[in-house]
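Researcher: Let's do a round of design. I'm pasting the structure tokens now; please hold your answer until I've finished.
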């Protein structure tokens, strides 16, 4: 089976085109993600606010039980 020079040329151009298309997207890859803008202090402050709110809520829930004149339990 003999290949003509035209078919060999078309085959070589097709392989070259496919290789270029496979390697080209890696050359245009996106830049890496930027560094986080906070160093964790915002997360720490959010946890502190939640804990303070929980302490306040528990204080207001438990305090009326101490001030209640009747012993329920």
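Researcher: That's everything. Go ahead.
Model: Designed sequence:
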């Amino acid at each position: 089976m003999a290949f003509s020079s035209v078919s060999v040329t078309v085959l070589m151009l097709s392989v070259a085109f496919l290789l270029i298309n496979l390697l080209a997207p890696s050359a245009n890859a996106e830049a890496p993600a930027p560094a986080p803008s906070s160093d964790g202090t915002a997360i720490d402050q959010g946890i502190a606010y939640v804990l303070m709110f929980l302490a306040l809520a528990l204080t207001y829930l438990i305090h009326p039980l101490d001030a209640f004149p009747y012993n329920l339990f």
